[in-house]
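Example record

One chain of 151 residues, shown exactly as stored in the release files.
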Amino acid sequence: MERSVLGQFVIAKLDEMIDVVAGMDATDVNVVPALPGANSAYQILYHCLGMTAQWTREDVLGLPTGRDRSVEFQQAGDVDGLIIQARAVRAQLLVDLASMRHDQAPSSLARARGTFWVGSAEGILLHVLEELCQHLGHLEITRDLVAGKAA
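Predicted structure tokens for this chain:
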């Protein structure tokens, strides 16, 4: 699926998120805007890396990721380290996409049983794309707020 339009969109949105964080400085990447429920840019990307790996690698392919969602929004660190981690997740995602079929039934459905899109790898990838797009917007707003670019 890595050559499918859907696979390419997932990679493109992940790349956009990586580019936003790569363009931030070491201080701004960890600043949480003064808004209810806000997260830092670091936390947003870190969360998306875990989300992407869990849905694709763990739920579709049945390969454990060790994701602990409860700690994702407590993370902080340096830009370079996060970018290295993000590029590793991206590289693994390309490998994983190459082994998926659109109609492939997920290995695990327990987390989202009853949700209409969990019946196939294509549905799960559409959900991953939906989440990446949503969080890319959050990330761009966060960047602009902490860099003082918001009007």
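Notes: The longest helix spans residues 121-146.
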